[in-house]
Amino acid sequence: MTLVKRLRLTAALTLACLIVVFGLTGWQLSALADRFSQYRERQHFSADLLALKAGALSLSRADPLLFETRSKLDRVNADVETLNLRVLAALQSEERAAFEGAVVKNWAGYRQQLESAIQIAETAPQDALIIPERAYQRYLAPLTDHLDKRLVEERRLLAAEEGAMRTMLGRLAAMVLGPLALASGLVLALQWQLGQRLRRQIGAMQAATERLARGDLTARLPDDGGDELADTARLLNDFLDILVDKLRSLRRSSGESTTGLRPPAAPATASREAETA
């Protein structure tokens, strides 16, 4: 595999892991946002239940003989009616009947009894003082008991939602860090393998180059890697083969010319002997 292909493979693996990480992160964040929205709605629901209980109990010790009790009853009744509508809208269909029977009807009964006590307060004050206590036992006590049970259930559900969100956060961390760790390991492994291969190739090329520098024209660069370095080495080896052939041809040509121009030794010696005689 060529160096370019190895680098492209590394980039493709990194990109694939990043796409997986982004996809899983987006999916988990969307699910976590939905879970948080449900948790916030449940918190608002619990707050409405607490406000409803507090409003109802604020009239548990109301004195029908006092003038401001009428205005307080009207104000609290308006708040309770609003809270009842909000709670009913948040409940499931099978839960609404139980809430209406335990809260809405009991509150209506208590309000009517307290209004009756306020009306007879001027003519029969003793009877007016007895009515709120009886109305509390008959209407407000069941109402608050139902709200207390519902609040306990809501606290349990809120704790479950918190646990679910913590689990999702842990899963989100695993889904993000897991693919990132895998991608990092793959990239490091590929880079290490590539580095080792380049080290061996470059070392072999350096050794061959040193032999060539010392005049050993039989040395050749390693060209068995199948990558760009091997292709370059193969071209250089072809150049060296051509160069060696040229040098051999020049050496043969030079040797033949020198032999043809050299004069014979015997005739020259005979001429010198004749001159001496």
Commentary on this structure:
With 277 residues, this protein is mainly α. It has 2 domains: 187 residues, Up-down Bundle (Four Helix Bundle (Hemerythrin (Met), subunit A)), CATH 1.20.120; 64 residues. The chain contains 6 helices and no strands. Helix 1 runs antiparallel to helix 2, helix 1 packs antiparallel against helix 4 and helix 3 packs antiparallel against helix 4. The two termini are 85 Å apart. The C terminus is likely disordered. This is Methyl-accepting chemotaxis protein.
Q: What's this entry about, in short?
A:
The protein has 277 residues and is an all-alpha fold.
Q: How large is the share of residues in beta strands? A: under 5%
CA-to-CA gap between the ends? 85 Å
Structural class by SSE content: mainly alpha
Largest sheet: none
H-E order? HHHHHH
* CATH C-level category of the largest domain: Mainly Alpha
Query: Unreliable runs, pLDDT <50, ≥5 residues?
Result: 257-277
Give the rounded overall mean pLDDT. Answer: 83
Number of domains: 2
Q: Count all strands and give the number.
A: 0
Supply the number of helical segments.
Answer: 6
Keywords: Membrane, Transmembrane, Transmembrane helix
Protein name: Methyl-accepting chemotaxis protein
Pfam families: HAMP
InterPro entries: HAMP_dom (IPR003660)
Brief descriptors of the model:
transmembrane, 2 domains, mainly alpha, membrane, transmembrane helix, about 280 residues, rod-shaped, single chain, Four Helix Bundle (Hemerythrin (Met), subunit A), about 85% helix
